[in-house]
From TrEMBL:
Domain Arginyl tRNA synthetase N-terminal, chain residue ranges per copy: 5-88
Gene: argS
Subcellular location: Cytoplasm
Protein name: Arginine--tRNA ligase
Assembly and oligomerization: Monomer.
GO term, biological process aspect, one: arginyl-tRNA aminoacylation
Positions of short motif 'HIGH' region: 124-134
HAMAP family: Arg_tRNA_synth
Amino acid sequence: MNILHELQSRFAAALADLTDNPEPFAAMVRPSQDGKFGDFQANCAMPMAKQNGVNPRELALKICERLNVSDLVEPPEVAGPGFINLQLKDDFLLAEVQRSFSDERLGVARVNTPKDIVLDFSSPNVAKPMHVGHLRSSVIGDALQRTLKFLGHRVISDNHTGDWGTQFGMIIYGYKNFVDSAAYEKDPVAELARLYRLVNSLSEYHSAVSGLPGLEERLKAAKSELLFNEGNADPADKKAKKALKKQRSEVQSLESKIEGQRAKIASVESDPELKALADAHPGIARSARDETARLHAGDPENLRLWKEFVPECVESLNRVYERLDVHFDKTLGESAYQPLLSDVVADLKAKGLAKESDGAICVFIPGNAAPFIVQKADGAFTYATTDLATVQFRVREFDANSMLYVVDARQSEHFKLLFETVRLWLGVEVELVHVSFGTVMGDDRKPFKTRSGDTVGLESLLDEAVSKAREIVASNDDSKTDEDGRPTPELDESTRDEISQIVGIGGIKYADLHHNRESDYVFDWDKMLAKTGDTATYMQYAYARIQGIFRRGEVDVEALRQHDTPILIEEPAERSLVLKLLRFEEALDAMASEYRPNILTQYLFELAGELTTFYDRCPVLKAEEERVRTSRLKLIDFAGRVIRQGLDLLGIQVCDRM
RNA sequence: GCGCCCGUAGCUCAGCUGGAUAGAGCAGCGGACUUCUAAUCCGCAGGUCAGGGGUUCGAAUCCCUUCGGGCGUACCA
């Protein structure tokens, strides 16, 4: 049961006579911030009183009279200007905890009206190896997938991979000109990745060489303009000051751009072999684009290569997903929608939504300066076209009434235009949500960009996390001693390996999930792999301690669950733990309604905190009375199951020993 | 130029449609291991919620404005 929702609906009923629109006021019931104000509080009396011009405290008392909550809470108290404080009855908590304890779903109900959701996440380019930037979408998307499914929604997760873009032209060009056949035989994906990097760096070299003089020109002009303005600026003129500042940052950005271009040039020219290749392929960028165009036009040779490459690339992605324990119901890449695109554009034109502008076919959405380009001047379709076709396909094929896109916030404008265009074009009732997330920044506070050459590959990140976890697991286990202080490690090598996987990968996922997804955050190895504080490890450890108690006490957990001794609430720490356990559904509902995994991580962290405090205050195996011992065993069993289930919904595993 | 986002403790971040004294983690300081696993617990210290104005009984939260930062902005995805 979602206790919060239950209280809100009781309030809605009580408020029906007092206002025309009780819902928003009922929603003002919320968990108390401070235990001294009870478990929940209702804040609706003040704004309602204002609206009706009456005394808020009197209104609060009136609301309390009409309120039918005596089965749930102690008599409500009115405090301060008109807060209504609610304290749950212990009898209610006991009945509820008993019911939830015996429930396989831990008391969490399924939603009444399941949605048909297509959840679009991860969506990497298949031709490039995944790097840390792909982590957020994968991890957030997977947590949403697991949670929404658990709550009873019909979810189709779809990895909308980039398998049809310009990067394939580069690979095809690279393959035709530079392939090392032996290397390709041995490890095709590694060789394709090398070819991609090679073609990319050669074309960047040429573009840097041709672009550099222009940039230097611009820098020179900007500098002299700045110098002139600095000399003439009136310090009192704010506008001029602002303009100056802008010019300075312009100069700075030009300088760093030039530096980058020079670095690209130097990296090629310092290597005679590369330089020779660059000289031999002056038009490489254009040629690569031509290969893409030929692929799209159905050229048999390029199509054959593409068909050969894609499965290899997808296979290599799947290895990473396997390690991350992230799985998709569908992997429908962009290529799947190609046959539909010309019809999409024709239909948009026929409905008067798309028109030609500067040679391109565009949809113009009022209020937006940028057009939504569905066909380029050269006739090629864009990802806008593909995304439109994809929406239509998902509505038709999957009966989707909700589509969630777990994509970087930088694409918000694209989604705004996409969603508006869909509404005008299809006119169907479908919920479209850009579940956006912030940029991962480097420690220089600038967006974490993958510089060619030294990208932090996702796989090496995972390796690093696991090996760090391995050290900690080993040192912790080695420090275990018996009563006489003799070392008693209990984990063999392969168990240590397993635990390191679970702890390492879990740590990485948690580091990402516990941020509010919309914030940018600073990528930090140490924090990502930290094992203390608000981390996955903290909860995994709490879980392992519970299992340790069962082992030490030789508790038959199955029998315990059937045992008819009731759960008791006698200590404050017990009540506090019980209440937290009963609010699991509330946390899941909140997470699902806003698509924010950090709501669940926060809940689990608080739960684990309640649990470890409970350990300190309340002996379990050493409890003096049998009924207390059994009750506490049941409590920690319940807590362990909630932690395991909660972590599982985040895609994080647990282990019995650590 | 236009648009979107952000600015909260030394650091990294929470803070739900406005609610009672702004919260965590890390780092710092002081306690707790003859232990149900110290990957822990308990306590202390640390904040003009970027600045200013407004709306309100009440603002970190809503509106305006200044400053500082990030991102996007017509044929890459």
